[in-house]
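Q: What would this chain look like folded?
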Amino acid sequence: MIKIGIVGASGYSGSELLRFLVNHPGELEVTLCTSETYAGQCIDSVLPNLRGFLSAKFEALDLDSLKERVDAVVLAVPHKVAMSFVPKILAQGLRIVDFSADYRLKDSETYEAWYHVEHTSTGLIPQAVYGLPERYRDCIRSAQLVANPGCYPTSAILAAMPFVAQGVVELDSIIVDSKSGISGAGPKPSGNTHYPNRESNFVAYNIGVHRHTPEIEQELTAVASEPICVTFTPHLVPMTRGILSTVYMRLTEEMSTETALNIYSAFYENEPFVRVLPPGTYPETKAVLGSNYCDVGLEVDTRTRRIVAMAAIDNLGKGAAGAVVQNLNLMFGFKETAGLKVPGMMP
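A: My prediction, written as structure tokens:
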């Protein structure tokens, strides 16, 4: 039995991870859930959807005792907080999956420029594996520290990666236009996420300065083996969860939609959680709601010679907690799909 501890388990990502893990058919068992806000309270009183599944209580974090209670730790805490925990946890011989951005970027100066905080654990950055199984599956299996991808980057990378890898698009032409539900901002309300401000409202934000931009660029650059700079514009839509990313790429040669879809299908042929949609069918967020699936589809605009590639994910599923379970399955030798073969919820 592999014992899992979740640090920050009462937030949206942590609680969604609990929802996946309580029905895991393998030997992943949640034995510790920490929450500074709800320490001492029963988990199912704070998260009523877990009634009958978890009877334990949230606890305060005691870093020094983790090795006595768990085999792996999932950090569901904000950036900067995670990097203060990771060295102490790794020193205990435990494996980590980190929800935060602290170890996603391979260059600490880039991290500091975009996140506006000093990175205090730069020595561990080279050790971290970017947790996108569709690209780094073999490295994830043996990793001690996995940096779970961001939600926007997951959708953008999966939409664009096959065509960047094939070298059929102009690398200076990539535009990522993403729409997200407001749960990606976490449970603490702000002016942007307050219900009266979001209901029946649709707005772009952080244009040109969103922190997920260098993550998208880093991973597509690694695929292309040459520098890529993208234009990324995120939007908030009046729904709780889900991301739809539309990626525009100019083709280097004329191509039909059928040919482009064949590239998609061949690239993702053996990927259990990427579903390539047939011609004329486009991704929608409801089809992946509550799941670990990413639906991809496309159309070639022959007039402008652009691929319009689309990806839909649940930002709390494939964009967060589902990806953690997928990574844990790989790290501990379970079937990659264990606990994750759940369809989306419609309507």
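The radius of gyration is 20 Å.
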